[in-house]
Amino acid sequence: MKISTKGTYALRIMTDIALNGDGNVTVSSLSAKTNISEKYLEQIIGKLTRAKLLASFRGTNGGYKLSKPAKDISVKEILQATEGSFKSVSCLEDGVKCDLEAKCLTVNLWAGLNKVINDYLASVSLDDVVNKNIKINKKS
Description:
The protein is mainly α. It has helices at about 5-20, 25-35, 40-50, 75-85, 105-125, 125-130; strands at about 55, 65. It has one domain: Winged helix-like DNA-binding domain superfamily/Winged helix DNA-binding domain (Arc Repressor Mutant, subunit A, Orthogonal Bundle).
């Protein structure tokens, strides 16, 4: 599984907005800070807004801000808004029926991998990312 630029940019956008506090952030200021084109930012911000992770405001002081506190937004939510599914193999996608499922010896491995990835991303909040509170569990 590989996270696309939309996913990585979405996380950068959300961290930048979280660092801004309660003020609204404009697309042009985000573009200048993140070096992402305004057109591409608008696509990503649209997905984040539809996922109810960002709130948009119009007018003179318009822009975007987090729709809830950073501690209540998981990295999983951010990535799902732009990436969709995190399934490591297509046979585990919702609605996909595999003719070999009953005989497949590897399906549990892939399902376990999906669980680890989803659980980890759900356990890390946007606040953890912003404050560098991410613990890496290295085993030797």
